[in-house]
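Please produce the structure of this protein holding magnesium ion.
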Amino acid sequence: MSQALPKLAIVADAPAAATGSHPAAIELSQTTVTFGRGANAVPALSETSLKIRDGEFLALVGPSGCGKSTILKLASGLVRPTTGAVIVGGREVAAKALRIGMAFQNPTMLPWLTIERNVMLPLKIVQPFRASYGREKRGAFRDKAHALLAQVGLRDFAGKYPWQLSGGMLQRANLCRALIHEPRLLLLDEPFGALDQFTREELWAILQDLWLEHRPTVLLVTHDLREAGFLASRICVMSARPGRILDDSEIGFARPRNIAMTFEPDFVALNQRLRDLIVNARTGAAAPGA
Ligand SMILES: Nc1ncnc2c1ncn2[C@@H]1O[C@H](COP(=O)(O)OP(=O)(O)O)[C@@H](O)[C@H]1O
Ligand SMILES: [Mg+2]
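Below is the modeled complex.
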């Protein structure tokens, strides 16, 4: 029944203080993660260095259990590095609390609130919005929620309750909620894993539109190589646990991308190359010293 933990879509808002210089949005510097100690120690992430540029859309793919979610949790500050450092928005993650919002793969909408109020929730919690929530929840904040909902095709559903929406619609509302407080960093952990293929493809286009319009830095974990190729501007392939980055490729397909593109030879070739890397990474796990 519970084979997998709930998948997170985490939103961290890096402080806007760093002007002038352009530090990487996220930087792992010789970072390792080991869970537990002694005989129970589980090395989850081998020494990894990775710089994600501001506004980049990076997809992380790799065999199950290789440390992908661990990297997202490092970026959000939920997990601390065992060695090395994690720098988000120019600061070490643990050094100062980041603005963080969360949403789950099975979108955890509050059933007693309308979609509009659910989407506005981060504004009720996160400063500087929080201070004016009481005043703006029927004004500017509601307009903001409506604008986002319209962008994902939910204009007519703002006043509905979560149970009145399909899974795909809820995930769209979830994306709106993830973006409403204008985070500079969007962390998505298999956000579309529970949806059927057609709904998933629809959401790729919506996420692409949202990214093109708002340009947050996105770190997306996915098992779906077509999803990675459709959405990402860069794909990192990880080895089996303890993971490290085996391949790091820029993905230059023109935008906006569409589904037809995913059947073209260049795209199929990319898919096959990534697939081979992951298959080798999985079987390589059994090899000595891997
Ligand atoms: N809190 C934890 N305690 C012990 N082991 C953990 C914990 N979280 C993850 N792991 C282990 O670390 C490895 C990497 O986990 P994870 O990053 O969730 O993998 P992925 O997201 O790539 O499937 C897995 O083998 C997992 O079992
Ligand atoms: Mg995971």
